[in-house]
Amino acid sequence: MQNSSHSTVMTPMLPPVVTPPRRPTRINPPRQSRWGGERSSGAAAFPSPLEQPTADTPPPATPTPSTPTADGTESFEGRFHYRTLQRKLEEMPAWLFSLIVHLLLLLLLAFISTSSGQIGDLVLTITQGTDAATDEFVEFSIEPIQLEDLTAETVLEPEMDIDPLDTAASIELASLAPVLKSDELAAQPSIIELPPSRQNMFGGRSGAMKQELLRKSGGTQATEDAVALGLEWLKRQQLGDGSWSLRGPYSDGARTENKVSATAMAMIAMMGAGSTHEKGPYRKELMRAVRWLVKQQDRQGFMAVRAAPHEKMYAQAQAMIALCELYAMSRDTWLLTYAQRSCDFAVQAQSSQGGWRYQPRFDSDTSVTGWFVMGLKSGEAAGLDVDPSVWPAVGRYLDSVSASRQNDDYYAVGYSYMVGDVASPSMTAEALLCRQYMGWHRNVPGMTQGLGALVRNHPISFREPDVYYWYYATQALHHYGGPLWTQWNDKLKTELPVHQVVRGRERGSWSPQNDAWGRHAGRLYTTCFSLYCLEVYYRHMPLYDPESGAEDL
């Protein structure tokens, strides 16, 4: 909005007062300035209402009633009455005269109608005035009005303590996708048609489909009660600004703070059970959370400015998943720009190795890569634009960390954290889930052998809890289905609810004390990942049909 604008209006000069004819036929008061300004400097016929009489000014004559003559013309008294009326009209303020004229016009319009009851046609003729122009001006101004956007939050540019793109292979800002303007955003359709293969990725989170998936996949009332209890714990931990914290206000918080990660994880848990910012039992919490989250996003799509250096890209990928899922579930168009921008950042941040790590376009590891793969696949499911060239590069990276490529006899079907490392259960589960979403057939030998090794050698056990590993293994095995999933789920659906805190201040959460990463990441981390595992029955639609052994991609 620009500052106050000034306009000038030319005030017509008033004509000199002319003595009326002896037998006037109509009343013709002198014209005044439209804006009620002063008349021209010429002598006025009547003093201004603000002028005070002086001793030299004779008092006005008392009007005499008009008396018609025998021939029907007005007498002197009639002419005097006319002059008095003329003076009254000239003394009348311009606004009052205008008001009277407009009222008369409105009354006239009210009586003008056709036989059908509609207002008849009016012809308005505008001609140029004949009065002489004046060089006097009346100035007026219109104060600016501050407008508030009630449908979308203003994008705030957070102060960058560490530029995420300030690396040896930094991303040129000009190469990033342009930000949609408000009018372009409004032109977006409310619902974007998705490819048939991706329309139902989040379609099982509520209603009859949720109940059917829960029954078929082996969920129980105990798992659903645990989810409800855990979500209520999350609800109680939300901060006043709409975010969540890794450090508290609960006990056993994280060693470091990462509010973007904490907020995204809590949102994903609530959305996994079917809520959005528009509907569901946690719609208010999600509305506050997403409004906080999008304020953290800069114009490149980056959101984790204030996180620790080794946590920034984890938080970024988690926030991307939250935004893309929420947009896919709601089709709320004001989220489109933010979700698309996060996908654009992910594509541009991919390293030459094909994956992602702690800094954009610099190095790769399987852990961070898995989060970005799931975020981009969520973006594709939401109908967002994702450059397809990212997927062959990810495939090459996963090949490079495959144990079979490194002749690792101990775990020949596993995947490692980085090139040259020993394969691990958590990285194997994460990599196999990526392979599933990237199109691997269910019966590929590496898929069956890898998942089979996880179930046999690394089952769920609270003697060595690791919710990160369980999170990825649970998803990959659920998609795979069959006996391997049944064997895994038999422990999942009993062990997780049993170890949930059911009394006291932390009722609904899971303790981080003995978890592989819990002491570092804290109670909110272990609680959210446990909830993801218990929501797996309906959180994502199955990728395969386990009965036929065929793909359903």
Describe this protein's structure.
It is a single chain. With about 550 residues, the protein is mostly helical. The chain is built from 18 helices and six strands. The strands form three sheets. It has a two-stranded antiparallel ribbon. Helix 8 (about 310-330) packs parallel to helix 10 (about 365-380) and helix 9 runs antiparallel to helix 10 (about 365-380). It is elongated. The protein starts with a strand and ends with a strand.
How do the helices and strands line up, and which of them pair or pack?
Elements: E1 5-10, H1 76-91, H2 94-111, E2 137-142, H3 182-186, H4 207-217, H5 221-237, H6 259-272, H7 283-295, H8 312-330, H9 336-349, H10 366-381, H11 390-400, E3 415-416, E4 423-424, H12 425-437, H13 445-457, H14 467-480, H15 482-498, H16 518-521, H17 523-534, H18 536-539, E5 544-545, E6 550-551
Antiparallel strand pairs: 1-2, 3-4, 5-6
Helix pairs in contact: 5-15, 5-17, 6-7, 6-8, 6-17, 8-9, 8-10, 9-10, 10-12, 12-13, 12-14, 14-15, 14-17
